[in-house]
């Protein structure tokens, strides 16, 4: 992977037509959001704390129920003056798996940087073998949070089929002035197996027999993820977006800070992925970030496991974290993802 850090910002009302729990910043904890390098007015902070930091420690048995109410935090206002215009090329389809793999890796990298850090103005990311590149070029220096926001809203628009997975140029504007773009486009031919998601994102492609061996972090062999699954299937695209959403959430917090738990919810609100501490153990946000990537690449994609799962996170032999991937009930008229979670 080639990742050259950069920055950007955006948010446009046309990109916000999704369920309430889907907003990238819907779970932002009270923090000092000073004005950006563009001298924008400060974004209002919130009094509601998400399930990320300083949350009540829960056992694995009660975490599904007790942490649900934390997903109802209000959505903060968009950064003033910044807009994102999505320009799709509907005659140039992109493979959804390639988009998710690249976007998840990029979000994983962005989460390493402090939320208010000012980054470089250009970067390119291209995961080897997937035949897709995401690139960003801006004329202004912007903060990490704006790159995260633009990436999130671009992928969300594809996931919600507005219009879908096609070549995309996300145009960044500060009021009426263009300041850059984020591009999603094909490059060469994919080398990996590019399984399709099927119509209506319902592909499950379940493997009947699989070795459930622990996942060992290649960057730190002391960090291990044990996992198990059930027969209940979940659409693969829902799993991938839930992981992407969780990474966007954990990106908001210092990676060495203690994490109380992170939820990621699919764009269609039919799946939730949760990772958090085990009992009174402390787990850094950076470990959650690593675990999300490892679960996606080694279990979901590597073993084609598209099912309900439980996770056990261990460091140097001691269990420090736990989590689950679960299916959510169908949405009822007038409800949203949070309501479905509460009913579960």
Integer count of domains? 2
- The helicity comes to 10-25%
Computed structural class: alpha+beta
Total beta strand runs: 11
Question: What distance separates the N and C termini?
Answer: 39 Å
Radius of gyration: 19 Å
Strand arrangement across the biggest beta sheet:
6-7-10-11-9-8
Secondary-structure element order, N to C: HEHEEHEEEEHEEHEEH
Query: What proportion strand?
Result: 15-25%
Any overview of this molecule?
This protein is α+β, with helices and mostly antiparallel strands and 344 residues long. It has two domains: 13-186, no CATH class; 199-343, no CATH class. Helix content is 22%, strand content 25%. Strand 6 (215-216) and strand 7 (223-233) form a beta hairpin. The longest helix has 17 residues, at 285-301. It is globular, with a radius of gyration of 19 Å.
Q: What is the strand and helix layout of this fold?
A:
Layout: H1 60-66, E1 82-93, H2 96-110, E2 122-125, E3 132-138, H3 144-159, E4 166-174, E5 177-186, E6 215-216, E7 223-233, H4 236-250, E8 262-265, E9 271-277, H5 285-301, E10 307-315, E11 318-327, H6 337-343
Antiparallel strand pairs: 1-4, 2-3, 3-5, 4-5, 6-7, 7-10, 8-9, 9-11, 10-11
Helix pairs in contact: 2-3, 2-4, 2-5, 3-4, 4-5
């Amino acid at each position: 992977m080639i990742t050259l850090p950069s920055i950007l910002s955006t948010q446009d009302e046309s990109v916000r037509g999704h369920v309430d729990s889907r907003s990238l910043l819907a779970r932002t904890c009270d923090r000092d959001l000073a004005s950006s390098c563009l001298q924008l007015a400060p974004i209002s902070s919130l009094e509601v704390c998400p399930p990320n930091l300083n949350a009540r420690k829960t056992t694995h048995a009660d975490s599904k129920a007790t942490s649900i109410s934390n997903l109802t935090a209000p959505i903060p206002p968009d950064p003033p003056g910044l807009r994102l215009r999505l320009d799709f090329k509907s005659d140039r389809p992109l493979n959804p798996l390639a988009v998710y793999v690249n976007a998840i890796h990029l979000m994983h990298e962005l989460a390493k940087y402090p939320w208010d850090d000012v980054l470089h103005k250009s970067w390119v990311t291209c995961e080897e073998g997937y035949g897709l590149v995401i690139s960003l070029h801006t004329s202004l220096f912007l903060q990490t949070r704006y790159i995260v926001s633009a990436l999130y809203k671009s992928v969300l628009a594809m996931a919600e089929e507005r219009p879908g997975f096609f070549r995309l140029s996300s145009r960044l504007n500060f009021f009426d002035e263009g300041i850059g773009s984020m591009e999603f486009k094909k490059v060469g031919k994919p080398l990996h197996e590019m399984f399709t998601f099927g119509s209506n994102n319902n592909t499950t492609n379940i493997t009947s027999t699989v070795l459930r061996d622990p996942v060992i972090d290649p960057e730190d062999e002391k960090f291990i993820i044990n996992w198990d699954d059930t027969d209940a299937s979940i659409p693969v695209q829902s799993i991938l977006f839930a992981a992407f959403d969780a990474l966007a959430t954990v990106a908001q917090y210092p990676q060495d800070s203690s994490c109380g738990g992170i939820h990621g919810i699919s764009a269609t609100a039919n799946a939730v992925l949760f990772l958090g501490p085990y009992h009174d153990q402390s787990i850094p946000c950076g470990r959650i970030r690593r675990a999300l990537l490892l679960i996606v690449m080694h279990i979901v994609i590597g073993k084609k496991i598209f099912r309900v799962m439980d996770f056990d996170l261990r460091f140097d032999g001691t269990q420090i974290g736990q989590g689950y991937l679960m299916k959510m009930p169908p949405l009822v008229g007038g409800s949203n993802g949070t309501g479905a979670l509460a009913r579960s």
